[in-house]
Amino acid sequence: MTPPYVKEHIASGIATIEFFHPAHNSLPGDLLSKLTNLITEAGENDEVKVIVLKSGGDRTFCAGASFKELININDAETGKIFFSGFANVINAMRKCPKFIIGRIQGKTVGGGVGLASATDFCMATKYASIKLSELNVGIGPFVVGPAVQRKLGLTGMSQIAIDANSFYDAEWARQKGLFAKVFDSTEELDSEVEEFAKNLCAYNPEAMREMKKIFWQGTEDWDELLAERAAISGRLVLSEFTKETLKRFQ
Fold this sequence. Notes:
- Helix 1 (about 30-45) packs parallel to helix 3 (about 75-95).
- This protein starts with a strand and ends with a helix.
- The chain has a single domain (about 5-185), classed as 2-enoyl-CoA Hydratase, Chain A, domain 1, CATH 3.90.226.10.
- It has helices at about 30-45, 65-70, 75-95, 110-120, 145-160, 170-175, 185-200, 205-215, 220-235, 240-245; strands at about 5-10, 15-20, 50-55, 60, 100-105, 105-110, 120-125, 130, 180-185.
- The radius of gyration is 17 Å and the shape is globular.
- The protein is of the alpha/beta class and about 250 residues long.
- The strands form 2 sheets. It has a 6-stranded mixed beta sheet with strand order 1-2-3-5-7-9, with helices on both faces. It has a 3-stranded parallel beta sheet with strand order 4-6-8, covered by helices on one side.
């Protein structure tokens, strides 16, 4: 079995950042920390013109946060730190001065929807259905909510947040604005991502940097906002309802 990893490959101005975990690409705290650092470093690297964010494997882009770590939370501070993992990655993506292209090859859940939403241009396969499942276990998509709402609008975000049992297909996500393009196969997706990234590398880096600032205007308070949201989730995960629900998954 392939061990978990976060790795980066830089070639011809394109930094490809890839994460993997054998549990459907769910992300424990250490991988989220590495992902945050690599995105930040790529943004500061003058050799990098554009970033591609992807995951390993072919079935699931990201199943969200590590359920094993979630089950073991026993105090509010640990809970806040746990839920800050995705907050830190989203904020790193938001503040990164380079465009980030999302490559979504399969299903994505919870925090994974947040990562897809925080990319600047996102492409997917027809198998890339999305779900916000947090309400099922007694919490909610508080941390990823701002990023998801920014892409889907309040109506779209609230729909999938409330309907926490359902996957919404890739075409629905495309119509709502999360995915720019949807392809029939991973091969087609990869070909388009590569070509698109190459084209971006030919653009003026300063122009792209200024455009990214404009696209993300109004999110300057997200460092504080997402920390507050992480604290809400960290408190709710200790509730009797959530603890009893999580026991069913052990």
